[in-house]
Amino acid sequence: QVQLVESGGGLVQPGGSLRLSCAASGSILSINVMGWYRQAPGKERELVATIASGGNLKYGDSVKGRFTISRDNAKNTVDLQMNSLTPEDTAVYYCYCRHRESWFSEYDAWGQGTQVTVSS
C-alpha cells in the first residue's frame, strides 16, 4: 500500500550524469531500506544501490565509485546521483523500499520504473 514515485530518468550522453529521485508515500510506519535496482533488456534485475535507515550502504560492483545514493529519512525520499555514465548503464531503474505498515510485518514496494538511456 506504499506508493513509490520516481523521477529524473532520460537520455544522456556517455560520460554524462543524471540524478534519479524517488518519493515514498502511503501507510508507512517506518522504512528500513530504500534504494535502486535496474533491469536491462534480456538481463536479470540487479542491485544498483541501497541505503538502510541506519546509514549502511550497498552498491553494485559495476557502479561503485560512479554512483552515490542518499536519503532523506524525514521526507521518505532517496536520490541516486549517477556520474560517468556508460551505455552499459542503460536500463529501467526501479525504486525499492522495504517498509513497515504495522508492527506485525514488513513489506517490499517497487516503483514503476524510469528509463535511463546512455547513448551518443
Give me a quick take on this structure.
With 120 residues, this protein is mainly β.
Number of helices: 0
Low-confidence stretches: none
Order of helices and strands: EEEEEEEEEEE
Q: What value does the Rg take, in angstroms?
A: 14 Å
The percent range for strand residues is over 45%
Structural class comes to: mainly beta
- Shape, per Cα inertia axes: elongated
Mean pLDDT across all amino acids:
95
Can you give the helix content as a percent range?
under 10%
Please provide the count of β strands: 11
Largest sheet: 7 strands, mixed
| Ends distance | 39 Å
Describe this entry's structure for a reader.
0% of the residues lie in helices and 58% in strands. The protein has strands at residues 2-7, 10-12, 18-26, 30-39, 46-52, 57-59, 67-72, 77-82, 91-100, 106-110, 114-118. Strands 2, 4, 5, 6, 9, 10 and 11 form a seven-stranded mixed sheet that branches. The chain is elongated.
